[in-house]
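Quick one, probably user error.
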């Protein structure tokens, strides 16, 4: 029987430098001869990418937003994540359901009950609940993320939200991490890239052993 692959997600508020660290992490794993599938949410499939365009650009009710996030996630799980894991590939995903908890519950005010119902519906399986084996949250103070976004590319509608929205998202991420300390590791991303990569290398080496 093919050994199941591992599932890693990378999270963080906008401006935390997540994309930079995700690229480094991918190279770290590939250098260790790990067969890696990189993907993202929302997105990762043809349908998911179409939904991503809507979600990042079109205004909508918060419950519609949450439903579309989970619709994209269901397609992602069925078409990409679960088949890859079953084939022994490792999946490295730019955001997963922790992002929905942070942005839609923390940022938008979606009820935790509705989030949990959607999470159980989409991620619940007869073989067990599907979630990442490891989640890395890159965390920076709000003023740092705001300054980075001010010098960034054209912003999407989440990135254009007011500072309080992003403060709420960050608080939700940290609360989620406190609830799941075995799975979720918070990385202080308000340091030099070298210092962050050194911590990541040590963390991943221990996790892989």
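Nope, works fine. Designed sequence:
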């Amino acid at each position: 029987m093919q050994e199941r692959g591992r599932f890693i997600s990378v999270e963080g508020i906008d401006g935390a430098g997540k994309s930079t660290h995700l690229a480094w992490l991918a190279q770290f794993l590939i250098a260790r001869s790990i067969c890696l599938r990189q993907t993202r949410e929302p997105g990762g499939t043809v349908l998911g990418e179409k939904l991503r365009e809507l979600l990042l650009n079109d205004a909508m009710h918060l419950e519609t937003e949450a439903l579309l996030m989970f619709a994209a996630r269901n397609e992602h799980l069925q078409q990409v994540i679960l088949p890859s894991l079953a084939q022994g590939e490792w999946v490295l995903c730019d955001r997963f359901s922790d992002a929905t908890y942070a942005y839609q519950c923390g940022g938008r005010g979606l009820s935790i009950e509705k989030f949990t119902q959607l999470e159980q519906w989409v991620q619940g399986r007869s073989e067990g609940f599907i979630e990442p084996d490891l989640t890395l949250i890159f965390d920076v103070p709000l003023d740092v993320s705001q300054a980075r976004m001010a010098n960034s590319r054209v912003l999407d509608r989440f990135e254009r939200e007011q500072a309080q929205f992003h403060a709420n998202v960050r608080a939700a991420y940290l609360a989620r991490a406190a609830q799941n300390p075995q799975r979720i590791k918070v990385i202080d991303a308000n340091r030099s890239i070298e210092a962050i990569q050194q911590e990541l290398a040590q963390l991943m080496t221990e996790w892989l052993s």
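The CA atoms of residues 56 and 157 lie 6 Å apart.
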